[in-house]
Write a structure and sequence with these properties.
Blueprint lengths: L9 E5 L4 H12 L3 E6 L2 H9 L9 E4 L5 H15 L4 E4 L14 H26 L9 E6 L12 H23 L4 E8 L5 H12 L6 H10 L9 H12 L10 E4 L6
Parallel strand pairs: 1-2, 1-4, 2-3, 4-5, 5-6, 6-7
């Protein structure tokens, strides 16, 4: 057994049906955790959950709309009822809509605020309630919020996304302070992923070209790589391993911090 071993623990990962969330779910399962994937795409989430372990019912999926309070209550209740625990919550679900600040649409702003900020806030609310000593799980744990390198740099074309991911950082730090001061036994941290060529990352590159910031998607990607000291895009595993670290006892004295996993882009 190592300090990274999550055997016997339960992790709920939002937006875990694809992309970074799926990679995080797989990494947590490899570390020994029982993983529950919370996602709007329930069928896809169930397929991913079924592929995580040797036993077909070892992991699970729950329908979760992170913007809906009742959906959060049901997802966490189902997780605790099924596994008897909730030790790790990964607030990963997010949405990015590219636009110049002069061209933003109110509906797009509301969507990003609701998913990225409200969704994370509700996750913190119900995760902390379940994990604290008087909660349904009641054994403490770790909450990992997924912010973005966009919260640390001024990259063009993503003004509202950047603002929402900066809000995730602030929510993380205040929640960590409250959880510590009130004796919840829950650590709260966040990760700032760099650009990863998932469907969302690739879509961002295309959108950057579409709004005229770069000549082509490849040029947009090249600009990111040029600003990254390690000279490459991120990989899903880079982000997933950081989540495992923050979920595990290896980070037992770490709370209220943001871990940059961006190849140095945001330094």
């Amino acid at each position: 057994m190592t300090v990274f071993d999550l055997t016997g623990r339960t992790a709920l990962v939002t937006g875990g049906a694809q992309g970074l969330g799926e990679g995080m779910a797989r990494a947590l399962a490899r570390a020994g955790a029982t993983v529950v994937i919370g996602d709007l795409q329930h069928d896809l989430a169930a397929t991913v959950a079924g592929s995580l372990g040797d036993q077909p019912d070892q992991h699970a999926a729950v329908h979760l709309d992170v913007t809906d309070e009742a959906s959060w209550e049901a997802a966490i209740a189902t997780t605790v009822e099924r596994t008897g625990r909730l030790d790790v919550l990964v607030n990963n679900a997010g949405v990015e809509i590219t636009s110049l600040i002069t061209e933003i649409e109110a509906a797009d702003v509301r969507t990003m605020l609701e998913v990225n900020v409200l969704g994370t806030a509700l996750g913190l609310k119900h995760g902390l309630r379940a994990m604290r000593p008087d909660g349904a799980a009641g054994q403490g744990g770790s909450i990992v919020n997924i912010s973005s390198v966009a919260a640390t740099i001024a990259f063009p074309g993503i003004p509202i996304y950047s603002a929402t991911k900066s809000a995730v950082d602030r929510l993380t730090r205040v929640s960590a302070m409250e959880a510590g001061k009130l004796g919840y036994g829950v650590r709260v941290n966040c990760v700032y992923p760099g650009l990863v060529p998932t469907a969302m990352g690739q879509g961002l590159a295309v959108s950057m070209a579409d709004i005229g910031l770069f000549e082509s998607p490849d040029a947009a990607v090249g600009a990111v790589v040029e600003q990254t000291p390690l000279g490459r895009l991120g990989e899903v595993g880079d982000m997933a391993d950081a989540v495992v670290f923050l979920a595990s006892d290896a980070s037992r004295f770490v709370t209220g911090t943001g871990l940059s996993v961006d190849g140095g882009m945001g330094m």
